[in-house]
Amino acid sequence: MPELAKQSSEKLPQGIPPGEIAEVRCSFCRGTGKDPFGIMSWMSNCCVCGGKGVVRVKAPYRPCPHCRGTGAIKTFTCGVCRGAGYVPRPAGPTLVCPECRGSGDDPASAMACLTCLGLGLVAPGES
Ligand SMILES: [Zn+2]
Ligand SMILES: [Zn+2]
Ligand SMILES: [Zn+2]
What is the model's pTM? Predict the structure, then answer.
């Protein structure tokens, strides 16, 4: 087996081969499985993980830049990661988005950056 070249210095989750589905703690409810903001009721299940406290993401993944890995924008589910707090990391080389400088935020609003769709990374050559 030839060794794969390192794509970046970013820490990747250990032990999860790319393309595999990993179960991670739900960022939106912090693993409690309950609605973290009590929108419907404090006793209702988290709308992101359905009450399980874990969500599935495809490896490799990285914390969602738009919501800073919290899964929430104020009390709303983050539209980029859908509340999971993690986004799949694109395969292949990537650049920090020049528009939002990797923050995933649209500079003019609270929405996700349109250039990188909130991921904070773009493929080289995209603009
Ligand atoms: Zn949850
Ligand atoms: Zn997010
Ligand atoms: Zn961007």
Answer: 0.81
